[in-house]
Specification:
34% of the residues lie in helices and 0% in strands. The protein has 97 residues and is mostly helical.
Amino acid sequence: FVVAEPSSTAATGRKKGLTLDTMHQGLKNMEYAVRGAVVIEADQIKADLKSPGGAERHGFDHVVYTNIGNPHSVGGKPLTWPRQVMALVDLPDELGV
């Protein structure tokens, strides 16, 4: 994810509002880890669920992986707002945003 330094837009002469300086620190430090700590822990729990008494220890009998793939498959709502924000961020300077 790359954010350009402030630049004037062709249409308005205004500077863009989203820059590395104005971006939330959490967004700058965000990492995408398909095989991160959460998935590793989920795999360990899934394996433990197969052992005798596993479901009783955890209070459930299966794991639903919601961090990978299509969130709609587990009842997630469409990601309209984040998609709209990303579309604006990616909009060319010439369009005036």
